[in-house]
Amino acid sequence: MKKYLLFVVFMVAMSSAWAQVPQFSSANFAGWIYNNPVIYLNEDNILANRVVLYRTSAGQDLTLTSPEFNCSAGRSIDMNVTWITTQWKDEQFDKSKVALTAALLDASGAVVDSVTYEFDSISRTNHVFFSLEVPATMQHARLRLASWKADVNSSGAVRQMTASTTLIGDVNLDGEISVADVNTVLFVILGIGPDMTNGRADVNHDGEVGLADVNRIIGFILN
């Protein structure tokens, strides 16, 4: 009985590992790395928007990297990032330079998936949605946020990042991949369902919701 209980505890721990994707905020930044030695990650600096992401005049890219976490195949990581700039009305501010990038890093630090959000419009507080796909062989990962094109005049600060994981293809979030997910995507395509263009309905991450996403879900079901 004890061996059985230990096995159950182990399986619960493994299944809940996905709930432990690192979050970032003024109250939750343990283990995160900000590669600017002048600014420390603490509540005051986060709330004061000092955790900025941009490329310095010396060519250094200021980035924010999460602690390592466990992962496995067939999942996607969905992130909502609150990105703030106090310079958006300045004459020197260049919106074209503000392209926020999220990357999934393997245990060696190599990028295995990344996505860049380019701002059509911008204000002081901006909410950005990212989705990254976890490769089949990946066991451990980190998340990294950067703004490679930005300079000091177009920099922004990450106020918080909330992340969750879902099965790739589980568009309606019912815990499984089925015909119901196919129907949900079809409703989006027909314009009679919720707008998930930049979210879960874009299963193949090509930036739009179309029949390619339907076909991929059907492939998941048949396999």
Describe it.
The protein is an alpha+beta fold and 223 residues long. 19% of the residues lie in helices and 27% in strands. Strands 1, 3, 4, 6, 7 and 9 form a 6-stranded antiparallel sheet that branches. Strands 2-10-5-8 form a 4-stranded antiparallel sheet, with no helix packed on it. β6 and β7 (111-118) form a beta hairpin. α3 (179-190) packs antiparallel against α4. Residues 1-19 have low confidence and may be disordered.
Give short descriptive properties of this protein.
223 residues; alpha+beta; four-stranded antiparallel β-sheet; 4 helices; globular; disordered N terminus
Task: Summarize this entry quickly.
By secondary structure, the chain is an alpha+beta fold.
Shape by Cα distribution = globular
- Helical stretch tally: 4
Fraction of residues in β-strands = 25-35%
Q: Characterize the biggest β-sheet.
A: 6 strands, antiparallel
Q: Please give the radius of gyration in angstroms.
A: 19 Å
pLDDT < 50 stretches: 1-19
- SSE ordering: HEHEEEEEEEEEHH
* N-to-C span: 36 Å
Can you give the mean pLDDT? 85
Beta-strand segment tally: 10
Structural class: alpha+beta
Helix content: 10-25%
